[in-house]
Amino acid sequence: RRVDLDKKPAGDVSIQASFQRRILSVSTTFANENDGTWTLADWDGDRRPDLIFIKTSNTPNGHVEVHIASARSNFQRRILEVPTTFANENDGTWLMTDWDGDRKPDLAFIKTSNTPNGHVEVHIASGSSNFQTRVLEVATTFANENDGTWLMTDWDGDGKPDLVFIKTSNTPNGHVEVHIASGSSNFQTRILDVATTFVNENDGTWTMADWDGDGKPDLVFIKTANTPNNRVEVHIASGSSNFQTRILEVPTAFRNENDGTWLMTNWDGDRTPDLAFIKTSNTRNGHVQVNIAAGRST
């Protein structure tokens, strides 16, 4: 169901003054670069998301590198720059997750093509070793597939990241599907396979975040192109409804843009996810910029 954001919706969908107020717009220590993955995660344990660049090609020794700038310095000060145990590779998705439960983000590679047995693999190097020690390498229940977004989040609430595939095209009924394999089974056991309220769409970024604060990840679509008023929109379906019920649909403070990475993070510490845009090209001074709009407007 598509909601006209210029009209008051009926039923279960609410429109709130979310993502209207910018709470951060800064140029960072990093020069513009797109040879890898940009993300935000709390590396130094101060409960603020740090800016992380996972460099996966064109590195001096042929190994993936991790570069981190601290949130405390508004991303002006580098706090880690290391080559990792992984050789450069781009046949999948790179991300950060706390796999071993030590509250330190670990480096994960979800390999989704060119695997020996045709199944998606998960490879993880520990943050505590500065990504030198592998702590998991497994083939999963999923066959290789790239018609969507791969990520990790704790769906079942056991404290272990689960493997999530958000399938956004080539689905039987034309709706986005969510498929989840449990971390506790090393991604061998499926714990959710559902079609969602969203029709297939790829004009933006699909992710998960706990918007409603019930401890269950919600499905988030950050629509960054082809919106009615040329503003980025955020659409959220609740995890508690298995992604059948829309709980937020709003245009945001951001104009449509795709020169970087869109994601959800908790910047201001109020437990409501904020909308972040890491702009990695076409910036005024040639440096990566971080722009964040508050999830909760006050």
TrEMBL record:
Keywords associated with the record: Signal
A Pfam family per the record: FG-GAP_3
InterPro entries xrefs: FG-GAP, Integrin_alpha_N
UniProt name for this protein: VCBS repeat-containing protein
Taxonomic source organism: Dissophora globulifera
